Structure formats: structure tokens, C-alpha cells
Amino acid sequence: MNTCRKRLPSTAARFRSANRESEMDKLRTALIGCGPRGVEGHGHKLKESDRFDLVAVCDLDEALAANTAEALGCEAVTDYKKLLRRTSIEAVVIVTATEFHSKLALRAVKAGKHVLLEKPLTHDLASAVALLQAAKEAGVKGMVCYQLRFHPFYEALKQQAAQIMPVQLYSSRQCGLMGRKYLQAGAQGGLLDFCSHDFDVALWLMGVKPKRVFATLGQGIYTDTNAVDLLSVQIEFGPDPLRAAHVVSSMGGMGIPRRYDLVGRHGNVTAQGQGLKRTTLSIGETGRSTSDSVEIAVDPGGPDPTHLLHEHFADYIRDTTGKFPAKATLRDGVNSLLIAEAALESSRNKTVVELDELAARHGYALGG
């Protein structure tokens, strides 16, 4: 067995827009939601970016909106309906409680605004499908904040997975006790909120259409609520050969590092912490044998993944070719919610859920 080590370049060195226009062509944007996630997670980054002109922030709390506007050097608004009627605003970033995503985003796309929403996309599958259809009818674009797709660790994992043709994935990203505001029942609460990222990563890494889901979900194990706090979800993919992903998480897993194991037709990839290892396998006359392995250290430095997601959003909006390779689209958000709702149904009924059937019930066609 031959072993060598590689160090991947930073995300900044690898990330280049295929269709970037003038740096002066800033996207006139408003932020809806002035809570900590909205301000620290998005507001300051939008203000500091040379791709955006943050013209206004909006929140029902007048004092909060005013303080945020002062900190970010823009206008404060409390009426989102008036804000969305402004023709000068091209896009909105929605960072509110999940139950308000659908109402705000639907109003935005019908007003001709492009949208970037925090995850999960909406509070349930039906509203997510309705938003996707409304955006299509309005001719606007949208993304969901799946920052992991822009994180150097996950970009490296995706690159290595593509080389082995994955057929099996084990994903473990543990969680501590979540804040009270996240402890809600349904597809948007508890670990189904946290693991919205993990479902998206599983679909992204496997790269083929998911077919069915079987899940075991626990409630009331670590909290006194009905929120999901223990999760084990198996996703089967197609077409043949059989491929599967297993996503596990719990609110009792504090201190356990994230781990990914991918078994492929042409090798294996193991990822933990900031390191990855790819082992290439060959089939000899007497069976399978290891040919070589590569250890890959991922540079934890470089741009913030949310900043890269913002840039990608701006590039996507400014693209006029229709060929921009968009990531974390509204459809990706719908697909992650489809897995979450299938997991709820599977656990409740102790049965396998066929994803095409569940999607069809909501007027959605699951693409390949």
C-alpha cells in the first residue's frame, strides 16, 4: 500500500465565479429578520461584501430594527409589505423563525424579488413546494442557506466522494441540547432542523435520486418537549446498484466529533475533524485489495462559508446564461424537507416511505 499526504488549497483559492460581472454591479438587498442570526450571521457579512448594497433591514420590533440599521448603516423598516413593494430592491435575505419563511418568501417572489432563506426552507413540505412553484412562475431565483456546501471540509469531501462512486454513506454529526426556540414538533423543529444540513449533504454527496426512507426518531429523551432529539434515518438511492445513506444524530452527543464514512465502487473515504483519507481499491484475482491511500488535510482558514454562499447567490442572480451551476437552490431545500417529512412518517407508522409517492401527494416531482 502506498500512502501520501495532500493539502488542499483554501476555499478562497478554489472558488471562482464562472459568470461574474463588474464588481460595481452590486445587488440591492434587504434583510428581513434582525435577530442574532440575521445580524451576526448575515447582516454584517452582507454589509462588508463588495457584491451587495444592503439598503434596508426589516423587523416587527421597531427598536431592534432601528438599532440594527444604525449598526449596519442602512434604513430601518417595520412593514415588510411596504418594503417588498419597492422596485429598487432586487433581493431579500430572510432570517426569521421558520414558521414565517413561507409567508414572507411567497410575498417576496410574487413581488419579483430573488430570495435567500435560512434553513430549513419552510415549516413543511407543502409550503416549500408552493414557494418553489411561485418562484418559477414569477421568474425569480432562490437559494437556501446550506453553508456546509461552501465549507472547505465538505467541498473536499465532495471532491473525494466523486472519485470513488459512493454506494454507502454513514453520517454522524452530533448535537448538544438545542435552544428552546428550536424545540418544536414537526419537520422544522429539533434535530430535523439541525439535520436539514445533513440530509442535504447526503443527497449532495450521493449525487443520485433518493428513492425511499426508513427512520427511527426519538422524542422526549433529552428534553421535555415533543421535538425530535434522537434521530436515525436511512435513505435508499437509485437507480441500481443499491446505494444507501445513514444519517444519525442526537442531542446527547456533545463532544463527539463529526464523522463521515463513504464506501464506493472504487474506494473508501473517511472524514473526521478536519482530516480526510481516501483509499483506492482494486479487484484482483483473489478478491479486493488495497492499492494506495491519500491523506488530505483541509485548511480551516479562508473565507467564511456564509460569505461564499452570499457570493454564490449574487453570481446566480446576475447570471443571464441560464447555465450557472447553482448550489443550495430552492429545489435542494424542498428535497431536504422531503427527507424530513418522510422520516417523520416512517417513524410514526413504522414503515418504509416511498419518496416519489410522498412527493406526488404534494404535487412535486422528485428529480433525478
Write the layout of secondary structure elements.
Blueprint: E1 2-7, H1 11-14, E2 27-32, H2 36-48, E3 52-58, H3 62-72, E4 75-77, H4 80-84, E5 91-94, H5 101-110, E6 114-117, H6 125-138, E7 142-144, H7 152-162, E8 166-172, H8 191-194, H9 196-206, E9 210-219, E10 228-237, E11 243-250, E12 259-264, E13 267-272, E14 275-284, E15 287-297, H10 305-318, H11 330-349, E16 353-354, H12 355-361
Helix pairs in contact: 5-6, 6-11, 7-9, 9-11
Q: Any overview of this molecule?
A:
This protein is α/β, with parallel strands linked by helices. It has two domains: 16-146, NAD(P)-binding Rossmann-like Domain (Rossmann fold, 3-Layer(aba) Sandwich), CATH 3.40.50.720; 148-303 and 327-361, Dihydrodipicolinate Reductase, domain 2, CATH 3.30.360. The protein has twelve helices and 16 strands. A ten-stranded mixed sheet has the order 1-15-14-13-12-8-11-10-9-16. The radius of gyration is 21 Å and the shape is globular. The protein starts with a strand and ends in a 7-residue tail after the last helix.
Mean pLDDT: 90
Helix content: 25-40%
The SS-based structural class is alpha/beta
What CATH architecture label of the largest domain applies? 2-Layer Sandwich
Task: Return the string of H and E elements.
Answer: EHEHEHEHEHEHEHEHHEEEEEEEHHEH
Main sheet, how many strands, which sense, barrel? Answer: 10 strands, mixed
Care to count the β-strands?
A: 16
- The helix count comes to 12
